[in-house]
Design a protein that fits this description.
This protein is mostly helical and about 100 residues long. The chain has a domain of about 60 residues: Orthogonal Bundle (Helix Hairpins), CATH 1.10.287.1040. It has two helices and two strands, in the order E-E-H-H. It has a two-stranded antiparallel ribbon with strand order 1-2. Helix 1 packs antiparallel against helix 2. The longest helix is centred in the C-terminal third of the chain and has 35 residues. It is elongated, with a radius of gyration of 18 Å. The N terminus is likely disordered.
């Protein structure tokens, strides 16, 4: 029997984050929060002032945030592709997203 989702799942919570939970029912940060935390992890590790154990623990946190960001970006890409297909194009095709210079 699958676990039931909490009543507030997908609703906005403090700080503008949307409550999403992972398989262990732990709150998962939104993309912007995960990215900011990943950037902070990188800055801290680049300083080189931590012990090996602290660095490893922080690196593990960074990998977790990176995976969350990747998953959220992939989810967003899938939603966009569905929207493109729904728009009615009989020849819906995948078009690569290109970042403009200076963006």
């Amino acid at each position: 029997m699958p676990d039931e989702a909490p009543a507030n799942r997908g609703q906005e919570v403090d700080g503008g984050q949307t409550l999403v939970e992972n398989a262990e029912n732990q709150p998962v940060p939104d993309f912007e929060t995960a990215l900011a935390e990943l950037e902070e992890v990188v800055r801290t590790l680049e300083k080189g002032e931590l012990t090996l154990e602290e660095s490893l623990r922080l690196f593990e946190r960074g990998v977790k945030m990176s995976r969350i960001c990747t998953r959220l970006l992939n989810d967003a890409e899938g939603r966009i592709e569905k929207l493109i297909e729904i728009k009615g194009s009989e020849e819906a095709k995948r078009v690569p997203f290109e970042v403009e210079e200076g963006a």
